[in-house]
């Protein structure tokens, strides 16, 4: 994230949870940038609000207690997004039945893709070990595979030697105009 985000950027934390990523992003964008944070759980929004306030970062953030599928309605029409972070699944230590799901995750990812700046990045931490996790991962995989390679490059970063069902990172980057695919 720190290589993708600069002071003044507009970024999204699509699943704020306890606010760790939100605080990190708010520091990266600084007072001239903005972080839009989403979560459906009131406790997540409140915990994040407190974490931001403790670090005097409230001014450069907008928290919305609603699903990230509302990104298109919440962000100003002219907002170009440099980076969006989706930490999928459930909140560790929280209610494990409140999870992100394929249809809403896809709606949000597509809304961000339409607003990405050149070189802008969508980072998705994908978990498959909980009920519904594999369905969400499969839907995302299908989506990213059909993205035009002249517009986006998609990379996966995953554990090779970890047992059980380790999470993996999907990174969708919008190409700058001059970049061409290598194949
Ligand atoms: C893995 S946690 C996020 C952890 C967070 N990044 C942190 O640093 O603490 C996933 C979060 O996604 C939230 N969530 C589930 N469905 C959502 C949706 N449609 N839109 C936004 N957030 C959602 C859950 O409430 C939960 O807090």
Automatic annotation (TrEMBL):
Cross-referenced InterPro entries: MnmM_MeTrfase, SAM-dependent_MTases_sf
Task: Say which domain of life the source belongs to.
Answer: Bacteria
Q: Which keywords does UniProt give here?
A: Methyltransferase, Transferase
Q: Name one GO molecular function term.
A: methyltransferase activity
Its BP terms in the Gene Ontology are: methylation
Q: Reply yes or no: does the keyword Lipid biosynthesis apply.
A: no
The organism of origin for this protein: Lactiplantibacillus modestisalitolerans
In Swiss-Prot or TrEMBL terms, this protein is called Class I SAM-dependent methyltransferase
